[in-house]
Amino acid sequence: MTAERFIPEREPKRLFEVTDRLLATLRRGGADLSQLGIPAMPDQEDDLELWEDVSVPKANARALAWTNSMKAADHDDYLKWRFADLDDYQRPQALGGWLDSLIEAKRKKARPSAMHFIVSGNIGSGKTTMVAALGNEAASRGLLVRLVQHSTYLTWRRPDGGPDGMSRYEIRKRHVEDPDLLILDELCGEMDGVQTEFVRRETTDLVGSRLASGRPTAFSTNLKRDGIATILGERLLSRIEDRAYLAKVVGPDRRAPRKALDW
To answer: What is the pLDDT along the chain (263 residues), one digit of tens a residue?
Structure first.
């Protein structure tokens, strides 16, 4: 009799067996394979410099979470920026030093000495590029980072306002409870002079909860301090300013045309 051909790919698999093909699919999707007891691939280790408590698969999953938050904010173009790409006036050394302090605090399971990093500057001065570079670097080092615009977060927290049917609880957990670093872009943007109980209550909950849990937050804004105080109130603003590093960006308007338009 002719011997039957043995083709491993076509052989029946044991229930719950993790095959190489399944592993490849999980890795492409950014799954945390450490939860399955599977060690990181050696060739992936060489590409990332992570604090020691993060496996490469977990870092890949967190990097995917960061990428998705940037896409949700329509900031895909900012995913390429790193500290080395920033100009001196965009304070790359200050951003890098703060990120190092966050990694060190995470390693020691302690609170960072500076809980907040505030990026303030005029429209078009490169603030979003700065915080995007911060997020890109932090995600590559194994932190769970998310970016959301302040006004977007408030919209999502309203009844039935969440994207893809997400509940108010799910929105809060994703942006307040889970991230090692939250980047709140355009603080008080598109709400000049707005004073509502909802805005103050939700922002107080976000800032206060992250402070209480020792989770740092970076803010960007083009408003002056008085404008933010008018919207959020002095009490909340003082909590943001406490133990914060302020980086005022003074640079050219990157969005302005090189040659003035003749209207």
So the answer is: 555 554 555 555 555 566 666 666 666 665 655 555 555 544 444 456 787 778 888 888 899 999 999 999 999 999 999 999 999 999 999 999 999 999 999 999 999 999 999 999 988 889 999 999 999 999 999 999 999 999 999 999 999 899 988 999 999 999 999 999 999 999 999 886 777 899 999 999 999 999 999 999 999 999 999 999 999 999 999 999 998 999 999 876 666 666 666 67
Q: How many other CB atoms sit within 10 Å of the CB of residue 110?
A: 10
CB of 72 within 8 A of CB of 80? no
Of 77, 181, 65, the C-alpha closest to 129 is 77
What is the number of H-type helices and E-type strands within the chain? 10, 5
Residue (of 226, 141, 146) closest to 180 by Cα position = 146
